[in-house]
């Protein structure tokens, strides 16, 4: 059996470790361990998921150096190109900021932000170059769906009990933990293993299109596959969690996920699914005392809400903050909350990496969505479904990043770059029948 055929069938190489396994370890560290947990001795660089992302970057680098030329069948990857352009601008911005001179308390956050970006680069590159078959891509998406369903379950338990349930991580010797349960209008705002409820909502709603796709396709199996209906359980759990999150962003993210996935539903099921979703929503809002009134006030009183006013006022101050370096910004990770809290990642990036960085990051999202949609040209139905779902997930993250500074939170950032990497792998997977399968990562 040739190496290319072995890779196409998802067979592990003699090195014994494949990209799906490596990414699954990252996913577990990202979702199962609270975002606020760090190895005390390493400080902000001690996050388990961050450290494993650096391992992924090293593994990807070594694998690429060991891969021989005839093992590769190059596939143009807009996602990799757009991300590389963003990284170059971030490095230029960082260098310029250091040359200008910075207060001592800004140098460490900027360095941490760069290391975090390198960690996310490892996740992105392993996903783009390591996943090459529909079965591998479907397997990774299923694991994200299972992880998101378990995360939603934890959030619902927090909502019902009023307890964080993950505090024990802070008692483990050598570990420190930040974060905790929050309330709004007397209603518990669950956060799962995230630092903040908005980070939690972003992770769940980014995964929701993938979970819906798995449910529609019975776990990406055949129509005769048994147990396919169980995939609707994570959909229900994430839906309920979004409704009880007492968050405008969570509800908007949920709505975007559902609306963008409606075209993927079989025509005969669209009305039934939408109707069942409406019934579920009404049942949840009426079953939880005060939830309906609180949710209505979130939108009805948005104009006078302090967080909304802060976001609006922040837009007026953007030209002021960008005036010193409009093209490459003040420096990635340097604009600290003491200056202003925008609660908008797009605005924050415009300040930190300037117009060029903003355009590059926007292009990164565009490249990921385009790559996923190109996968819909595949002759395999599961690849077309995966392409649609991944594009919907990326669009959802782009929308939600307008409501909080997502790259400042490990869970939200980790999900973004994993999904973007899977968009690239979807493009490669769709091209595989025409180009042949490449050896991918883990082979030599």
Summed up, what is this model?
This protein has helices at about 5-10, 20-30, 50-65, 80-100, 105-130, 135-160, 195-215, 230-245, 250-260, 265-285, 290-300, 305-320, 345-375, 380-400, 410-435; strands at about 35-40, 175, 180-185, 185-190. With about 450 residues, the chain is an all-alpha fold.
Task: Please give the alpha-carbon distance between the first and last residues.
Answer: 15 Å
Helix and strand composition category: mainly alpha
**Spatial extent as radius of gyration:** 22 Å
* Unreliable spans: 1-16, 433-439
State the total count of DSSP E strands.
4
Summarize the amount of helix as a percent range: 55-70%
Strand order of the largest sheet: 1-2
Number of domains: 1
- Main sheet attributes: strand count, strand direction, barrel closure: 2 strands, antiparallel
What order do the SSEs take from the amino end to the carboxyl end, as H and E? HHEHHHHEEEHHHHHHHHH
Number of helices: 15
Shape: globular
What's the rounded overall pLDDT mean? 83
**β-strand amount:** under 5%
Q: Which terms would index this structure?
A:
4 strands, two-stranded antiparallel ribbon, disordered N terminus, mainly alpha, 15 helices, two-stranded antiparallel sheet, single chain, 444 residues, globular
What does this structure look like?
It is a single chain. With 444 residues, the protein is mainly α. It has one domain (17-433). 65% of the residues lie in helices and 3% in strands. The protein has helices at 3-8, 19-32, 48-66, 78-100, 104-130, 134-161, 197-216, 232-243, 248-261, 267-287, 291-300, 306-322, 345-374, 381-400, 410-435, and strands at 37-39, 175-177, 182-184, 187-189. The strands form two sheets. It has a two-stranded antiparallel ribbon. A two-stranded antiparallel ribbon has the order 3-4. A hairpin with a 2-residue loop joins β3 (182-184) and β4. α7 (197-216) packs antiparallel against α14 (381-400) and α7 packs parallel to α15. The longest helix is centred in the last third of the chain and has 30 residues, at 345-374. The radius of gyration is 22 Å and the shape is globular. Mean pLDDT is 83; it is low at 1-16 and 433-439.
């Amino acid at each position: 059996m040739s190496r290319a055929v072995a890779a196409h069938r998802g067979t592990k190489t003699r090195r014994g470790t494949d990209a799906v396994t490596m990414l699954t370890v990252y996913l577990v560290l990202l979702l199962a361990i609270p975002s606020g947990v760090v190895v005390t001795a390493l400080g902000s660089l001690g996050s388990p998921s961050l450290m494993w992302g650096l391992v992924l970057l090293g593994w990807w680098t070594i694998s690429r150096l060991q891969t021989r030329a005839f093992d590769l069948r190059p596939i143009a990857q807009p996602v990799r190109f757009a991300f590389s352009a963003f990284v170059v601008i971030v490095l230029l911005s960082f260098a310029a900021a250091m040359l200008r001179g910075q207060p001592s308390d800004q140098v460490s956050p900027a360095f941490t932000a760069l290391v975090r970006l390198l960690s996310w680069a490892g996740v992105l590159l392993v996903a783009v170059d390591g996943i090459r078959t529909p079965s591998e891509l479907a397997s990774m998406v299923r694991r994200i769906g299972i992880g998101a369903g378990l995360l939603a379950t934890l959030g619902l338990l927090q909502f019902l009990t009023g307890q964080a349930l993950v505090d024990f991580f802070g008692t483990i010797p050598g570990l420190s933990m930040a974060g905790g349960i929050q309330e709004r209008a007397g209603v518990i705002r669950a956060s799962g293993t995230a630092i903040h409820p908005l980070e939690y909502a972003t992770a769940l709603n980014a995964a929701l299109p993938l979970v819906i796709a798995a449910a529609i396709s019975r776990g990406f199996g055949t129509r005769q596959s048994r147990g396919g209906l169980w995939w609707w359980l994570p959909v229900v759990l994430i839906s309920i969690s979004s409704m009880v999150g007492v968050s405008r962003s969570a509800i908007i993210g949920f709505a975007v996920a559902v609306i963008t996935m409606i075209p993927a539903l079989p025509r005969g099921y669209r009305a039934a699914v939408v109707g069942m979703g409406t019934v579920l929503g009404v049942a949840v809002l009426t079953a939880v005392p005060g939830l309906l009134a609180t949710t209505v006030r979130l939108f009805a009183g948005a104009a006078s809400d302090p967080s909304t006013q802060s976001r609006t006022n922040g837009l007026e101050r953007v030209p002021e903050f960008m005036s010193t370096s409009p093209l490459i910004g003040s420096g990635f990770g340097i604009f600290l909350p003491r200056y202003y809290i925008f609660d908008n990642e797009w605005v924050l990036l415009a300040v930190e990496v300037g117009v060029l960085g903003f355009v590059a990051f926007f292009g990164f999202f565009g490249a990921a969505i385009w790559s996923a949609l190109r996968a819909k040209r595949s002759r395999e139905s599961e690849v077309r479904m995966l392409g649609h779902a991944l594009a919907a997930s990326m669009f959802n993250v782009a929308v939600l990043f307008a409501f909080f500074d997502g790259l400042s939170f490990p869970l939200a950032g980790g999900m973004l770059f994993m999904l973007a990497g899977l968009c690239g792998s979807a493009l490669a997977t769709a091209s595989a029948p025409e180009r042949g399968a490449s050896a991918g990562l883990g082979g030599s």
